[in-house]
Design goal:
It contains 15 helices and 16 strands. It is of the alpha/beta class. It has 2 domains: 128 residues, Roll (Urease, subunit C, domain 1), CATH 2.30.40.10; 253 residues, Alpha-Beta Barrel (TIM Barrel), CATH 3.20.20. The model has no long low-confidence stretch (mean pLDDT 94). The site of zinc ion has 4 residues, from loops.
């Protein structure tokens, strides 16, 4: 049970910890995908010094003793000390694929799914409810969802628009993401303009809607400067390869990075398109074939696998995680948190599925939830590792062995979460 306790000190000293810094992987040159325990940067009997939202020291307590003494001697600065009691400290987790800002849960569709019936509401219902919501209602929903994610260890979350699908509504979603990002206890939010998510009810032709996206919605989005990426749902029966290419090329020309829902429900050419566009990520990939895997490896595109979606939909086909890693594709994991196909907000649950269903090792799973997603979000130096001078987002687990991460299925072994921001006091949410 995570209760809330803030430590509003400007400086924080974490002692008696086993810190998994992920620094060797974060500092590795090139695009090699292999990860083993030596890449994790594990420091036992460790201390970690945080000031002004940044790591000022991390290493063995004995090696940092002078720095800690100096740190504690400063009389006019409030310092909190957190005794981790031997527990594992990880970089805050990075969720590289979510649709966490929505109104319109679809519980009745869940019941249809269980009964083997076709869901009645579909994404159209979420679009209708998100369009109809007031700004306060939209913010309240986003705040609630992001708090769930944070309390389970997520300190940076990519969040996609795409539940309004018109210019004012998409701009409102992006404005809400910027406001959520600046909240005092929110995970950091990386905004993605997922304009080619679905066909809105007032359109009956995908090509016409792509015209609308490129001509009327994207210019406003790009001018706002909030969205960092564009994203398309490239799938048979939805946005074709040609339509996705047209939209994403326009996004790239407007200065956005490219992400892509690729080969989730069919072998639809999404991975090849992601490689062609040198996308930052190709996501899902349940049906990617050998040609697609090779293309992703050659382009350096990061795979983002979403095993909770397959579990919720009870899909027979899983992404070929081992083939991707062995072919040299850096492979990240994400929740895909959304009301229709993945009501999962916990990366701990995703870690368990990755290990049990996809065959990832503990080291590969940690890389997939820290450094790899951070790189896919253009945030290698801002998230996913604990390094001197870099932001100090971290989580404290209830366990002392990093291999237990992803072993427990369900529940929450995160004891404390620090979402640190430069210029703001340290803020710790913890079961203390
Ligand atoms: Zn998605």
């Amino acid at each position: 049970m995570v209760t809330t306790a803030a430590i509003p000190a400007e400086r924080l000293l974490v002692v008696n910890a086993t810190v998994v810094t992920m620094a060797p992987l974060a500092e590795r040159e090139g695009t090699a995908a292999c990860v083993d325990d030596a890449d994790l940067g594990i420091v036992r009997d460790a201390a970690l010094v945080v000031a002004d939202g940044r790591v000022r020291g991390v290493g063995r307590y004995a090696d940092l003793s002078h720095e800690i003494a100096r740190f504690q001697r400063q009389p006019d600065v409030e310092t909190a000390t957190y005794d981790a009691a031997g527990a594992v400290v990880l970089p805050g987790l990075v969720d590289a694929h979510t649709h966490a800002l929505f109104c319109g849960e679809r519980v009745s569709d869940f019941e249809s799914l269980i009964a083997g019936e076709t869901p009645r509401l579909g994404i159209g219902y979420t679009v209708e409810r998100t369009r109809a919501a007031g700004y306060g209602e939209l913010m309240a929903a986003g705040t609630r969802h992001l708090a769930w994610m944070r309390d389970h260890g997520t300190t940076t979350a990519e969040v996609k628009s795409g539940y309004a699908l018109d210019a004012p509504g998409e701009m409102r979603m992006l404005a809400a993401m910027a406001d959520l990002d600046s909240g005092p206890a929110s995970p950091h939010v990386v905004a993605t303009f997922c304009g080619a998510h679905a066909l809105p009810p007032e359109f009956h032709d995908y090509d016409e809607f792509v015209d609308e996206l490129c001509r009327h919605i994207l210019p406003s989005v790009a001018a706002s400067g909030i969205a960092r990426f564009g994203d398309a749902f490239c799938e048979r029966g939805y946005f074709s390869v040609q339509q996705s290419r047209r939209f994403l090329s326009a996004c790239a020309a407007a200065g956005l990075g490219v992400r892509l829902h690729a080969d989730e429900l069919n072998q639809s050419g999404g991975a090849l398109l992601a490689a062609e566009l040198r996308a930052s990520s190709a996501d899902h990939l349940n049906f990617v074939d050998s040609e697609g895997v090779s293309a992703l490896a050659a382009s350096g595109t990061i795979a983002v696998l979403c095993p909770a979606t397959g579990e919720y939909l009870d899909l027979a086909r899983r992404p070929p995680a081992r083939q991707l890693i062995e072919a040299g594709v850096r492979t990240a994991l994400a929740t895909d948190f959304n009301p229709g196909t993945s009501p999962c907000f916990s990366l701990q649950r995703v870690a368990h599925l990755a290990r049990r269903r996809l065959g990832l090792s503990a080291a590969e799973t940690l890389a997939a939830l820290t450094v790899w997603p951070a790189i896919s979000l253009g945030a290698r130096d801002a998230a996913g590792s604990l390094r001197r001078g870099h932001p100090a987002d971290l989580i404290v687990l209830e366990v002392g062995d990093f291999r237990e991460f992803g072993y427990y299925d369900g529940g929450n072994i995160v004891r404390a979460v620090l979402v640190a921001r430069p210029g703001r006091p340290a803020f710790l949410r913890a079961s203390i």
